[in-house]
Amino acid sequence: MQNIFHGLGIALITPFKEDYSIDYEALENLVNYHLDNGADFFCILATTGEAPCLTLEEKNELTAVIKRVVNGRVPILKYCGGNNTAAVVEEIKTTDWSGIDGILSICPYYNKPSQEGLYQHFKAIANVSPLPIVLYNVPGRVGVNMTAETTVRIASEFPNIVAIKEASGNLEQVDEIIKNKPKHFEVISGDDALTFPMIASGAVGVISVIGNALPKEFSRMIRLEFRGEYEPARKIHHQFTELYKLLFVDGNPAGCKALLNDMGMIENVLRLPLVPTRIETKQKMNEILKGMRI
């Protein structure tokens, strides 16, 4: 299996109406907006999509709507992970994966497994998965970091594990993975703010939060880098610097939902325990957008 998740991946939000029900009309409009403005693939039903606060029925309906609107135009990476290995394995075995191109699976959270535990967890998943797997390392959320050594070990032993979404924030670790990985395995940025240096080091794309609101601008930066045009790409990266921080200061996806609300695309609604970003944060982001000339 080869990794097909290159370029700008959108960590797709779930838009809600004022009554907290899913706004499927806004969702369709968002997906088409992303496709018209440079999205190369979608990552669905993960953290930015507020998946922990969705019912199984809602997840199934969201998946069906997204597949219908995308209609094979770009790949779809769907989240399936957790901290109960047996439950994740069972979910993979019983899910209808038609129309989905890969599985994103996170390091187990809260349990804080050892490196051997991480290896065994992903081994169990690899042994049953019908689709390519993208690992997801995000120690700030799960409480444990999967080391470069463990990542390379997993990648070397399981050919259907094709990439990692690296969100450790550790560029030295990213370099270590890229240097030692097997040929079929690739690195995807899981951090908007580090996408520029990660692609310069050999990453093949990003699963982006800011891309929800600004796919055209962010995809342009990535494409410039792929062509070796680092100076204009760096200029775009630096224009985003303050926005990167503000997007996450009140939690994710509060920041990107505030941006999309200012753009008139969605209601500024999140499901508890998440709440909308503070007014002052929203105003600062709006001012930055007005001043940007990309």
TrEMBL record:
GO terms for cellular component: cytosol. InterPro entries: Aldolase_TIM (IPR013785), DapA (IPR005263), DapA-like (IPR002220), Schiff_base-form_aldolases_AS (IPR020625). The record marks T47, Y110 as: Part of a proton relay during catalysis. Pathway: Amino-acid biosynthesis; L-lysine biosynthesis via DAP pathway; (S)-tetrahydrodipicolinate from L-aspartate: step 3/4. Transmembrane segments: none annotated. PANTHER family: 4-HYDROXY-2-OXOGLUTARATE ALDOLASE, MITOCHONDRIAL (PTHR12128:SF66), DIHYDRODIPICOLINATE SYNTHASE (PTHR12128). GO terms for molecular function: 4-hydroxy-tetrahydrodipicolinate synthase activity. It comes from the Bacteria. It catalyses: L-aspartate 4-semialdehyde + pyruvate = (2S,4S)-4-hydroxy-2,3,4,5-tetrahydrodipicolinate + H2O + H(+). Pyruvate binds at T48, I207. The active site is at Y136 (proton donor/acceptor), K165 (schiff-base intermediate with substrate). NCBIfam families: dapA. Pfam families: DHDPS. It comes from Prevotella jejuni. Its main location: cytoplasm. PROSITE patterns: DHDPS_2. Keywords: Amino-acid biosynthesis, Cytoplasm, Diaminopimelate biosynthesis, Lyase, Lysine biosynthesis, Schiff base. CDD domains: DHDPS. Belongs to the DapA family. This is 4-hydroxy-tetrahydrodipicolinate synthase. It is found in: Cytoplasm.
